[in-house]
Write a structure and sequence with these properties.
Length: 223
């Protein structure tokens, strides 16, 4: 398995490269940001990328969306310090095959590598639990309100754009309304769907098939 490492900390990349080589994987290249990752992936055609999220020029989520649109068969696993559920949901929506936290023990990471070889999805246990809790809560909410019943036509338009990651300004521009109006609609959407924030909106939309395919070459602007 040919691996590309993407992280803006060279020392971390060096340590990870040594661990992967000791586990029998071939590290074919390294990149320090999302832009370089895209260029290296085009040049080296790796089978697997370990991708950080917070990086200069282009972050890991943006790079993942671009790479999955161009190379759909590429396996990308996020390796990050962020346990923010919004990053987790966005990574899944962008086509990442896994989401691991950097604070794991070496033995745990080696176990994840074995699961990766078997083609299993990789998510750190705490985040997997969080994801399952979220989908369970959304399923319960679905029992009280099926799909988009109860939303106005305009609220459904706002929901679609928000679920794709558009900002209030981007939604306002797309629908030719004010940002205050977008905020008003978002408040109604959260109340009607029994959600608490935009991260949950993304999870709800993902669960109900409202998000675009991960190989969509035209992600929304304003994200």
């Amino acid at each position: 398995m040919r691996v590309l490492l993407v992280d803006d900390h060279a020392l971390f990349r060096a340590g990870l490269a040594g661990l992967l080589r000791a586990s029998g994987l071939e590290v074919v290249g390294q990149a320090g940001d999302g832009e370089e990752a895209i260029a290296k992936a085009r040049e080296l055609r790796p089978d697997l990328i370990f991708m950080d999220i917070t990086m200069p020029r282009r972050n890991g989520l943006e790079a993942t969306r671009a790479l999955k649109a161009e190379i759909p068969d590429l396996t990308i696993v996020m390796l990050t310090v962020s346990d923010d559920e919004r990053d987790l949901f966005e990574a899944i929506k962008s086509g990442a095959a896994g989401y691991l936290l950097k604070n794991m023990q070496q033995e745990e990471f080696e176990e994840f590598l074995e699961r990766l070889r078997r083609g299993e999805p990789l998510i750190s246990p705490a985040l997997a639990h969080k994801l399952l809790q979220e989908f369970a809560r959304l399923k319960e909410a679905e029992g009280r309100l099926s799909a988009r019943d109860g939303l106005s036509d305009r609220e459904q338009e706002v929901l679609q754009l928000a679920a794709r990651g558009a900002t209030n300004r981007a939604i306002a521009d797309a629908l030719f309304i004010s940002e205050n109006t977008v905020q008003f609609h978002m408040k109604n959407i959260l109340a009607k769907l029994h959600l608490r924030n935009r991260g949950e909106v993304i999870a709800w939309a993902f669960a109900h098939g409202l998000l675009p395919r991960t190989d969509d070459p035209h992600p929304p602007e304003g994200t």
